[in-house]
Design a protein that fits this description.
By secondary structure, the chain is an alpha+beta fold. Helices cover 43% and strands 25% of the residues. The protein contains nine helices and eleven strands. The strands form three sheets. Strands 1-8-3-6 form a four-stranded antiparallel beta sheet. The protein has a four-stranded antiparallel beta sheet with strand order 2-7-4-5. Strand 4 and strand 5 form a beta hairpin. It is globular. The termini are far apart.
Length: 224
């Protein structure tokens, strides 16, 4: 069972729940740590939990029959995902990899379904979550077809600051060029060049092992 203060800190949605619903959510959540590069789940696995990122960075990806891997999303602390899989009780259609040491909050399916069936506040959150993820995946299809490496880098970086998915986070993230390259599907060198280009345009500011967003709107529309 997760501590109440920690749950509120890592899950913005929990703050809108009345006491009985909050306690149901809290009772259903456990924490688990994964090392850098660890596989959290594979395609076809049954991960019987709704998942939140308490600390770290996770890559959601798929691999084609020919062996080509495509990143679907990067998820930083504050992200919650997998609700569709939990609702439908189906195997995972994607793989999850910890890009750095990562701590996950795992809500058992019975607690998730109780909230899904009883909580108006929780369902409002899920509707917004579904809408944002759908928009993100539609944009991903466009990104892969039309944008160059810097454009893909810009979109993936902007997605880590989506104000609906990450309502509590400021405009700075500690992230390496290697991690960004893995999210955007480009080499570290190309990520380095792309970041320099975005910095020259005033969209971001580069720090030592960190990036600060200066213009999120222009960053998210880079290449249009």
């Amino acid at each position: 069972m997760i501590d109440p203060q920690e749950l509120r800190a890592i899950a913005a949605w929990s703050r809108d729940l009345p006491p009985d619903e909050f306690e149901e959510a809290r009772r259903g959540i456990t924490l688990k740590t994964f090392g850098k590069g660890a596989s959290i789940c594979h395609v076809g696995d049954r991960l019987e939990s709704w998942t939140g990122v308490a600390e770290g960075l996770v890559k959601m990806a798929t691999t084609s029959k020919t062996g080509k891997s495509a990143t679907l999303a990067g998820m930083r602390a504050g992200a919650w995902f997998g609700e569709g899989t939990v609702i439908k009780a189906e195997p995972r259609r994607y793989e999850l990899v910890a890009l750095r040491e990562t701590r996950l909050a795992l809500m058992r399916r019975s607690s998730f379904m109780w909230l899904f069936e009883h909580s108006a506040a929780f369902n409002r959150f899920l509707v917004h979550q579904f809408n944002e993820r759908l928009a993100q995946f539609i944009a991903l299809a466009e990104t892969e077809r039309t944008l160059d490496s810097t454009g893909r880098l810009a979109r993936n970086l902007a997605w880590l600051f989506n104000p609906t998915l990450y309502p509590d986070l400021d405009r700075t993230i500690a992230i390496s060029q290697e991690e960004l390259g893995m999210l955007a599907g480009i080499s570290r060198q190309m990520a380095n060049q792309g970041l320099a280009r975005l910095a020259d345009l005033g969209l971001i500011e580069l720090g030592h092992g960190s990036i600060t967003i200066r213009d999120l709107d222009r960053l998210s529309r880079y290449g249009e």
